[in-house]
Amino acid sequence: MIGHLRGKPIILEEQNEIIIDVRGVGYSLLCSENSKGDIAGKASASLWVHTHVREDSLILFGFSTLAEKQLFLSLIKVNGIGPKLAIGVLSAMPLSKIIQLIDQGDAKGLMKLPKVGKKTAEQIVLSLKGKLSFQESTSQDFSTKKDIISALVNLGFRMADVEFAVEKLEEDVSVQEGVRAALAELSQ
Predict the structure, then answer these.
(1) What is the per-residue pLDDT for 134?
(2) Parallel, antiparallel or unpaired: strands 45-53 and 58-63
(3) What CATH homologous superfamily does 4-63 map to?
(4) Fewer CB in a 10 Å sphere around the end CB: N or C, the chain?
């Protein structure tokens, strides 16, 4: 199974599809609009990958953040939601807003998502309310970690190494403390 790819992104006009060129091999991935926006215009991109295998197909789904991948995996466990619908849900609004609607039990808010009717929205709330353990990392703490990752990548460290070091940080770390701690980890 493919779990992570890093390479040159090629954004396709087709909805939700990109190609990541990894040393001459192009991997086609379905991504949310949020992930496409995160990697658009970059010379190199790092994506978390979910490999979806069925009898008749093998489809790769790509995510610019681990939190987005975790929410995707939670959504596809809900009755009536397949991987393509889950990508559509993730494309419709920011991750933190989707999680907020789920945790508040706001089925009406979820019904505003594309192809999500009343029964599906209620099923999402029933299945996921209070069970999204990565919630904190998607809100303010997530943006802090994103800033730390950005700073370290701009210093010349590889994205995979940086993400590994940042995952070890405390949830409530400041950007300055996080950069210092991650630099200490990366220099070992």
Answers:
(1) 56
(2) antiparallel
(3) Nucleic acid-binding proteins (2.40.50.140)
(4) C
